[in-house]
Design goal:
Layout lengths: L10 H16 L4 H12 L3 H12 L4 H21 L43 H74 L11 E4 L5 E4 L6
Antiparallel strand pairs: 1-2
Helix pairs in contact: 1-2, 1-4, 2-3, 3-5
């Protein structure tokens, strides 16, 4: 199962990482083993755990790291002091009476003290380094893809905001035109009302009712009557 996890590290995750690394240091294990253990618990890759430890967490535990190393040394010394010293039994060579009459002296062979077995950290192989660097590269690409996606969403949001601003401006211009049309309509109705009143003349008068026409500017003009009675 491929470990894929892109969420942020919590305080509890950092604490688990620090405790695990310090425990492995005290026990004489390697940090890579600690990263593997934390990665299994948090469903993260060992490379991600190592990057988090070196970039963020390690600087907060310098004193604890020094203490864990001293405890590891003290543990090794205690193991060396408690291990029993084994000696090789004394081997006595018998005298050769046929070759020489004198007695051959005893030869004591004493084996050197057995050194206590020291726990050595496994050496870091080239395959481990290559695997670690490949995982870091994969995490780096995944992070870059997330950043590019966020930037794309931000650009789309900016474009939408610009479109909304343009539509608001168009709406404002339309409302202004509508108000102008309404004012022109009121003026037109006033002119028509005045023209109607001017056409209503006294029935006793002999003059014909005046006629009006509207010019290209929207103004009414009286039309001269043609013909004679």
């Amino acid at each position: 199962m491929v470990k894929v996890r892109q969420d942020a590290w919590s305080h509890e995750d950092d604490l688990l990482l620090a405790e695990t690394v310090l425990r492995h240091i005290r026990e004489g294990s390697t940090q890579l083993n600690a990263f593997d253990e934390v990665g299994d618990k948090l469903n993260r890759t060992s490379a991600a755990c190592g990057f988090r430890w070196n970039a963020e967490v390690r600087m907060k535990y310098d004193n604890a790291i020094d203490l864990a190393k001293r405890q590891r040394k003290e543990k090794k010394r205690a193991m060396a002091a408690n291990s029993p010293k084994q000696r090789q039994p004394v081997i006595a060579l018998p005298s050769d009476t046929e070759a020489e009459e004198k007695e051959t002296p005893e030869i004591h062979i004493e084996q050197p003290e057995e050194q206590p077995e020291q726990h050595q950290e496994p050496a870091m192989t080239m395959d481990m380094v290559i695997r670690y660097l490949r995982q870091v590269k994969k995490d780096y690409h995944a992070s870059n893809q997330s950043i590019a996606h966020v930037e794309q969403l931000q650009q789309e949001n900016t474009n939408l905001q610009d479109q909304v601003s343009d539509l608001e401006k168009q709406l404002k211009r339309t409302e202004t035109k509508l108000e102008s049309i309404q004012e022109d309509y009121q003026v037109f109705m006033t002119i028509m009302d005045r023209a109607r009143k001017m056409t209503v003349l006294d029935d006793k008068g002999s003059l014909p009712a005046p006629a009006f026409r509207m010019d290209k500017n929207g103004n009414l003009q009286q039309v001269a009557q043609s013909g004679s009675q």
